[in-house]
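Our preliminary data section would be incomplete without showing what the modeling component actually yields. Below, a chain of 453 amino acids is followed by its predicted structure, encoded as tokens that our downstream tools consume directly.
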Amino acid sequence: MPERELLQRLITRATAARWAMPVQLGALLSLLGAVLFILSLTGAHPERAWQAFHVNWLFFTGITGGSLALVAVHKVAKAKWSGVILRFSEATALFSVVSLIGLVLIFTVGYHAIYGHMQEELHGLAHGKAVWLSRWFMFGRLLVGLIALYGLGWLLVRADLVPDMAAVRETVTDGRAPLYAQWTAGFDSSAPGLAAQEARIARLAPGFIVVYALVFTLVAFDGIMALQPHWFSNLLGGFYFMGSFLGAHALLALLLLFGRRQLGIADLVSAKQRHDLGKLIFGFTVFWAYLMWAQFLVIWYGNMPEETGFVFARLWGPWLPVGKAVLVGMFLVPFWGLLFVVAKKTPFTLGLFALISLSALWLERYLLVLPSITAEPGPPAGIPEVGATLLMLGLFLLSYGLFARMFPMVSPRLAMTTLQIERAHGHGHEFGHEEKLTDYALPPELERRHEGR
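Predicted structure:
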């Protein structure tokens, strides 16, 4: 049957790619970044290396948690359109190990370079706030929170992986075979067993979303707001985790454009899927601008020195060009670019605007952190900043590539649901005015059945 042919193709392709580029490039960038980072620590301004490390930790931790939140949201919503591409977001889970190690380094060897200035200001604060911002209390709650978040994320990803590992187990004959056998031991692949697994996913996903919002609010408060203890914002937590959620969608756009070629499933990642993802990037771009304006408006309207100083430091003098670049890259360019249907459907333009949005998000994290802690008169940019950035980027690519090498990078069961729905919509002419037949994935295996009728 054509469905079985397509399913077999998905099973074969799920574990066939070697993902050489992210693994090799990630290893190279990690090594180069580590060398530059260590050289910076032994140079004239070691504090700049740790401050840049903190910026990158906030950025990559954010898009990792945001990617897992994206998966959880799709599970809660029972989304059917993303079945081919959702695993690309799940593959970020392995970076959680790097994120936890980075947190430990920040609060041990890097603490004084990042938070050292805050210790002098704690003496002038109320006792309760001073205790809340104390070093080990901050570290303890962030460590416990992130372990809980990543642990729940791993349970969610594993629950989604196990049925696919069981489906592709017979095709895996290399060193991964023992892992597949261990994870799928006792798994019931019957209809009731699959239903029970879906019920488990349905229980884990809402819990992850709640924990994500709570933990990333703490990350924003302790990683950004605590750097300037006299400034406070109740909105900053939401601004951080929703910005990370936007970054996760932009990251998914880049990963699917690369991953579809690696897996040999370019014809299965349709213009309709890219269009839907582009609409989400567009929508959360507008929401980011709304949150930014809501934060700016109350600070400007209140005109209180302890609040306006935070904004003034970032939108005046040498920092003004960075602030403008964030506004242009996070809102103006993706808003006007992704306003057009063809830009969301076309791989090049979707990838371009996603890359601009993701780069601007990094710059936003840089702008939120550095003016609070740097001793430089303007934005520092040099070997310390490059080294820390390359190190984190390399580790992110490396962890992603290692996950992709180990696990099925397309879910046969989820992809089949998506492809069958797309084919039914395409041939049934049930699409809207923005879609046409060629926008849907029409696998040749299913088309042969259609032609034979």
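The mean pLDDT is 92. The radius of gyration is 23 Å. Preliminary results of this kind motivate Aim 1 of the renewal.
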